[in-house]
């Protein structure tokens, strides 16, 4: 994972200081590319522990076209909780403590963080126990799963981009149109978070499937390790569905940034030596990737350095 660590060094050395939507501030560069040969190991960051279970359950959530955090919370995956929680605390139905700027305040005030944790636990329990509440506040709008599996067409129907691209790879492997896009301009304003990983393309050569992702906005410390592993996993899954071997995962970044409150964590990570990459195993018990569950996907030989905690910018 030297490429990833070098990206961190480049941003620290050459990045421009910029404001951002969250009010946190970043150091940022524009336009960077990473390439991972998936035959040489699964690209899961080893300089800090990265939760593959969360990556897997989130990707399967996308693949199944789901957009409600209830499914993820039930699997103890809280990646998307903050965006759904924000929807609730800004509503007329919320009557608890002031949650304005909860992400920044929790990072700066330990007392407030305890209050936030209490309210977040209340929110999660209500999502799991109250279907009406989950439908109203758990749904994130037309985010990734909706666009991948149910893109709204002009004739009132929907387009299953993911199934279409699998069919295209199987029937016309040399096509240059093996593309799935999550960036739908007509629905961006309805999404809890506009897609950061916006567009990906598959490529078949020599019996191997490669994938290139364009990511418009890349949180390099927290997000990018997840994104690398997620799309590497997606490449493995689509290759399996299409009876192909894996090739490369190419990760093209637009605005690649490190948040100002992640600097110490990045320096700590850079002080560590990368370790050997793990290997991926996908169960053969299911007929299709659309039937897979989190436990069907496992990582072997993963020996990372300890986890490094950092606040998420909402």
Automatic annotation (TrEMBL):
Locations listed in the record: Cytoplasm
Enzyme class: transferase
UniProt binding sites for dUMP: 21, 176-177, 216-219, 227, 257-259
EC number: 2.1.1.45
Positions bound to (6R)-5,10-methylene-5,6,7,8-tetrahydrofolate: 219, 313
Catalytic activity: dUMP + (6R)-5,10-methylene-5,6,7,8-tetrahydrofolate = 7,8-dihydrofolate + dTMP
Keyword terms: Cytoplasm, Methyltransferase, Nucleotide biosynthesis, Transferase
Subunit annotation: Homodimer.
Family: Belongs to the thymidylate synthase family. Bacterial-type ThyA subfamily.
Name this protein carries in UniProt: Thymidylate synthase
């Amino acid at each position: 994972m030297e490429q990833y660590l070098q990206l961190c060094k480049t941003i620290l050395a050459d990045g421009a200081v910029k404001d951002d939507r969250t009010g946190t501030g970043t150091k940022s560069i524009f336009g960077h590319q990473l390439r991972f040969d998936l035959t040489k190991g699964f690209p899961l960051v080893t300089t800090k522990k990265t939760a593959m279970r969360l990556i897997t359950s989130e990707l399967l959530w996308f693949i199944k076209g789901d957009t409600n955090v209830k499914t993820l919370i039930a699997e103890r995956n809280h990646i998307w909780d903050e965006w759904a929680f924000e929807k609730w605390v800004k509503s007329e139905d919320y009557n608890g403590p002031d949650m304005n700027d909860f992400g920044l305040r929790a990072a700066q005030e330990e007392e407030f963080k305890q209050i936030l944790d209490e309210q977040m636990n209340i929110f999660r329990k209500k999502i799991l126990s109250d279907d009406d509440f989950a439908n109203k506040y758990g749904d994130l709008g037309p985010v990734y799963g909706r666009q991948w599996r149910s893109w709204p067409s002009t004739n009132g129907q929907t387009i299953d981009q993911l199934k279409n691209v699998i069919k295209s790879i199987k029937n016309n492997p040399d096509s240059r149109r093996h593309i799935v896009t999550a960036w739908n301009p007509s629905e961006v304003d309805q999404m809890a978070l506009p897609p950061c990983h916006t567009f990906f393309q598959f490529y078949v050569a020599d019996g191997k499937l490669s994938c290139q992702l364009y990511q418009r906005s890349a949180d390099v410390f927290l997000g990018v390790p997840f994104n690398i592993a997620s799309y590497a996993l997606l490449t493995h899954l689509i290759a399996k569905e299409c009876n192909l071997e894996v090739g490369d995962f190419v990760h093209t970044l637009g605005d690649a940034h490190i948040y100002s409150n992640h600097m110490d964590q990045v320096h700590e990570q850079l002080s560590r030596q990368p370790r050997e990459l793990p290997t991926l195993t996908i169960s053969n018990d299911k007929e299709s990737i659309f039937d897979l569950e989190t436990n069907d996907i496992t990582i072997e030989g993963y020996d990372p350095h300890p986890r490094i905690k950092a606040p998420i910018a909402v």
